[in-house]
Amino acid sequence: MAESKKMLANYVPVYVMLPLGIISTENVLLDKESLKQQLLKLKTAGIDGVMSDVWWGIVESKGPKQYDWSAYRSLVELIKECGMKMQAIMSFHQCGGNVGDEVTIPIPQWVLDIGEENPDIFYTDREGNRNKEYLTLGVDHLPLFHGRTAVQVYGDYMKSFKETMADLIGEVIIDIEVGLGAAGELRYPSYPQSLGWVFPGIGEFQCYDKYLKAAFKEAATKAGHPEWELPDNAGTYNDTPDSTEFFASNGTYLTDKGKFFLTWYSNNLITRGDDILDEANKAFLGCKVKLAAKVSGMHWWYNSPSHAAELTAGYYNLYDRDGYRPIARMLSRHDAILNFTCLEMRDSEQDAAAKSAPQELVQQVLSGAWREHIEVAGENALSRYDSYAYNQILLNARPNGITNKGVPKMHGFTYLRSSDDLFEDTNFELFKIFVKKMHADQEYCSDPAKYGKELKPLKRSKPKIPIEDLLDATTPMKPLPWDEETDMKVDG
């Protein structure tokens, strides 16, 4: 019996993301019977459930507080009928313009209309290009949306979702991932394909709307440097670090002015995550559900001294400064899961010119989260169907090997994504082996309590952490050791 419990403790749940366009922009659940067959096929692989975006641009499209959850209600009921669990994403961003976006779902038209009159509600780069993927955090607390602030709009949406799905939350819907930025990730939209970015460009800072300009000027003046301005030497989307004054060796990022800006830029991002998760806690208070937030895997230029791609996205991460531990510390206030991407990637697969290091990045982020005593979850960044990717995910899911030794493992893994390619015979057979290995070679377990994932009613967030404590990131963190070899391989 003791051995059985030990084995169950090693069970890592596996979910699969559903296609992006299963609900149309007209708010219709498309081809329900075909989707049902897809869900039943996935169930034969032994997965624990599925993940789906719940698009703000669809549900509140008709006007402020005019919510229509009917299509999503049908989706959740179908998932229940198929005997599966669901991770629901509160998707406050636009679908379209990012890697892997196959459909276009704008944010609500009534919000875009406000943006026609006041384009500064959108993130803006130094050249003045507006990005309509997500509202700038500069308007988080400004009542520009028919008397509501952006944070209030997000909070009202989540409360309405809770009220409509109350009988299904905890029974079917077990995780609520809260979208906090572009692509649903806690980051600035620093590398939009819609504005011409291509890998491995460093991206651009996104703080040149009038609200963030004013906020920076106020912060600089308060710090005794009213002459400081936002960066004008950080290059453009597809530059390399060394081609800019800001990110080059001995560049601006190392000066007092550069450090002040980067601290301000990254602190704003963490504070906005904290504020919106406060609203999520209020909305789902007492529900048996876990909150989660996604952090992007910015692995390119990780081995460059300036970590330029991470800095433009808002992750102030350097060799002597951990940019992810403060995010984990913020999430700990809300007992929220840190969901991280690019778990399938290996350094050896990357272009050497990009100075990419996904393996080291994953180790750093997950280690920092575990040290803050929060749960971590993971995703693959790109669609993969090969044993090399699955083996790397297995290694990251249990960094100390198959026995786990009572130390860190993942809360769950979500595979990107359900598709015809996944269901191809060879690919699907390999995927089923992968799921079995993630379950520690056990059969599917229907009781979350048995694999350490017992759902408890959500409590209020812990008291506010003083900002100086929350954002302290001056001590570099040594990652936890990852075993080089494991006995978890799926390729025989």
Automatic annotation (TrEMBL):
Its EC number is 3.2.1.2. Transmembrane segments: none annotated. It comes from the Eukaryota. InterPro entries: GH, Glyco_hydro_14, Glyco_hydro_14_CS, Glyco_hydro_14B_pln. The keyword Hydrolase applies. Substrate binds at residues 53, 93, 101, 294, 299, 341, 380-381, 417. It catalyses: Hydrolysis of (1->4)-alpha-D-glucosidic linkages in polysaccharides so as to remove successive maltose units from the non-reducing ends of the chains. One of its GO terms (biological process) is polysaccharide catabolic process. Keywords: Carbohydrate metabolism, Glycosidase, Hydrolase, Polysaccharide degradation. GO terms for molecular function: beta-amylase activity. Signal peptide: none annotated. Belongs to the glycosyl hydrolase 14 family. This is Beta-amylase. It comes from Gossypium tomentosum (Hawaiian cotton).
